[in-house]
Amino acid sequence: MIGVFDSGSGGLTILAALRQQLPEQDFLYLGDHANAPYGHRSNKQIVEFTQSGVNTLMEAGCSLVILACNTAAAVALRHLQQNWLEKAFPGNRILGVLVPTVEALTGVPWSQEHPEAAPQQAKKIILFATRKTVESEAYTDEIRKRAPHLDIIGQACPGLVDAIEGGAGPAPLAGLISGYVEETDLTSTDAVVLGCTHFPLVKRYFEQALPKGTAIYSQPEIVAKSLAGYLARHPQYMTPSNRGSDYWTTGNPTEIAAVKALLPASFNNFRSV
Predict the structure, then answer these.
(1) Is residue 196 among the annotated active site residues?
(2) CA 54/CA 89 separation, integer angstroms
(3) Is 69 a catalytic residue?
């Protein structure tokens, strides 16, 4: 079984793409709705919550866990990989959404931190994300290592995850997103990145607010393709049985129904853990 962890419901966008890419693979999803959102949390809290969630999934039999949360991946992933995982679950692996996104933006494999390449034309990319993801500068640092010609500008979107999780209607969501776009200097922008896995749920409102034709990088398909490649190289983490997916939450399953309008009905069959 492969685990998928998120601070709430946003990781379901990743799970949907994973299920489409790997239809025979079993997945176990855990949303930490009791502590969501993570965007305003301290780094210490994010590490603690993420470790607890990964621990729950691995104790349930997941040998590989995907952090389908940009904030968790930016703040906690490296710490857990270097200081906790090998002692707690030797041989298991944790992957995040940041690495595949950086590879997609730069065209440079993660293993090649300092590529020797001919000078390339400068490009401007806007990163829409939670405040904590923007403040971590994880995307900025890793992209500039590999593609210094890319200028990454972070735009925090405070309150958007809360609005999505709370089941806000089209008008409030569109209004929030329009406000974030208006705050952003889009001059000579080549592309934008939806750097929160909740944001593909409201991608259409970003498309409406952004200049027509703006290229948008959305993570679900990027992460799914990357995981398929990883499993091809590491088949020991594949556990196909056609059983499907299970959905766990640290919160109240009835309250998650607030996002029902944005998710497939089958994704609302959560149980508490």
Answers:
(1) yes
(2) 10
(3) yes
